[in-house]
Specification:
Length: 222
């Protein structure tokens, strides 16, 4: 009986370790995650939008638990509006957190209101996104951004209340950020430009991320 507390402690630690492994995806097949990363790419052009690839620093990749990413900045050739798009992939335990309302606040931005849900319809489907507006005072004035984000493992873009729990058992998770530079367009334009961009982008992502035979172009890996 004197060994009973030790046995109980070992059992508890074992269960806790297994739960954490499931939670973070530690026990998932790495080949599945690698294949998901290999399929990632973003288009160079999308309608009137022309893109330029961007780099994500290694520290951000490490902190975010990112196994692969594709990052582009797009400019609308007709209106000169600007959008930044970041597509991430990794294990759900890490990718399900670090949303823009947290990350940008850490960078000095103040949230204007709270995140609100928005639905974008595309090709007979509906995608769920969260949307938040932020601003920051700079030397040259005020900088304002609007962020949209969502997650998926199957092509059905979702914003569940507890993404870590919802996607905990998945072998990988994609997260999509679309950041609109509000200073690059008139205030009256609203968010139609960003929504229209996402509407056109989703079918492209569906065709590349969820077609096993399409390995896409190489993306940065941590």
């Amino acid at each position: 009986m004197k060994f009973l507390p030790l046995c109980v402690a070992v059992a508890v630690l074992g269960v806790a370790g297994w739960v954490h492994g499931v939670w973070t995806g530690r026990w998932s097949q790495s080949a599945t995650l690698e294949a998901a990363v290999a399929r990632m790419k973003l288009p160079e052009e999308l309608g009137d939008w022309k893109g330029q690839p961007q780099e994500l620093d290694e520290r951000s990749q490490y902190v975010g638990g990112i196994n692969g990413y594709a990052s582009w900045e797009y400019t609308n050739k007709a209106t000169n509006e600007r959008l930044s798009v970041l597509l991430l992939c990794g294990r759900p335990g890490a990718v399900a957190v670090h949303t823009p309302d947290i990350c940008y606040r850490a960078a000095g931005y103040q949230l204007i209101g709270s995140a609100t849900p928005t639905t974008i319809k595309w090709v007979g489907r509906e995608a769920e996104f969260q949307k938040i507006t932020m601003s920051r005072d700079n030397i040259t004035g005020k900088s304002s951004l609007q962020a949209f984000w969502s997650w998926t493992t199957t092509g059905d873009w979702q914003t569940p209340g507890s993404p870590r729990m919802t996607f905990a058992r998945e072998p990988f998770l994609y997260k999509l950020y679309v950041i609109r530079d509000m200073d690059s367009q008139p205030a009256w334009a609203g968010d139609d430009g960003a929504k229209g961009f996402i509407h056109d982008l989703l079918p492209v992502l569906q065709a590349t991320l969820f077609r096993p035979s399409d390995t896409g172009t190489p993306v940065a890996k941590r």
